[in-house]
Design brief:
mainly alpha; two-stranded antiparallel sheet; 8 helices; 2 strands; 55% helix; 4% strand
Length: 216
């Protein structure tokens, strides 16, 4: 006797499974990840553009600028000092201590020149381009409180600490100008780290609220 129930079950067992696309949306294509899209944990490649820059790249940019300025100031200062000392040595009064006083004056002149070059460089570059050479290499830009480039006044206030070496013209304070510059730089670094939202240093606040952002 034929077992119709068993034959029916066997036919059902031999039936091929439904196509894989039936398990997905009506389109039939399986869902794909959307990098950088909604629900994705991978940020898009350009998500950092326009965001405040952290201490690391800003420090490297400043270091590059200071190295360049140091080379330029060293060449100019050495030329001036050499000229002043040569004139002092040629003087018949050099044996009476005039040479030493000229050396002191030459150091003071070098300090003033270095301070003025640094202040002019940072102020003009940031006011006109929003970038120094170091910031160009690190793809950073300084923006004013309302966006865009800082004004000349804002850029001047923001970089006023670079003129601290001008204290070298004062005999008593000249010996401490390097220490004061170091204190100013450390204070800037600490305040940038503390401001976790906009990464502004005290010099940014002193300028009215400037911000350094990533542009690449």
């Amino acid at each position: 006797m034929t077992d119709f129930g068993n034959n029916h079950g066997d036919q059902g067992a031999d039936r091929p499974p439904p196509p894989a696309q039936d398990r997905y949306a009506p389109g039939g294509d399986p869902p794909t990840a959307d990098p950088g899209g909604y629900g994705s944990t991978v940020p898009p490649a350009t998500s950092w553009i326009g965001q405040p820059a952290d201490l690391g790249p800003r420090f490297v940019a400043r270091l590059i600028d200071f190295l360049l300025l140091g080379a330029v100031s060293g060449i100019i200062g050495s030329t001036i000092v050499a000229g002043m000392l040569m004139r002092a040595d040629a003087s018949v009064f050099s044996t009476y201590g005039i040479g030493r006083s000229v050396s002191t004056a030459a150091n003071a002149v070098t300090s003033v020149i270095s301070a003025l070059i640094a202040l002019a460089y940072f102020t003009l570059m940031e006011a006109n381009r929003g970038q120094t050479l170091g910031k160009m290499l690190l793809k950073l830009q300084t923006q004013g409180p309302g966006g865009g480039h800082p004004t000349m006044r804002e850029a001047l206030r923001r970089n006023a600490f670079t003129a601290i070496p001008v204290l070298g013209v004062i005999p008593v304070l000249g010996a401490y100008s390097g220490l004061l510059s170091l204190i100013a730089i450390i204070t800037i670094a600490v305040t940038i780290r503390r401001d976790t939202s906009s990464h502004r240093g005290w010099h940014d606040d002193f300028a009215g609220g400037t911000t350094v952002v990533r542009v690449g």
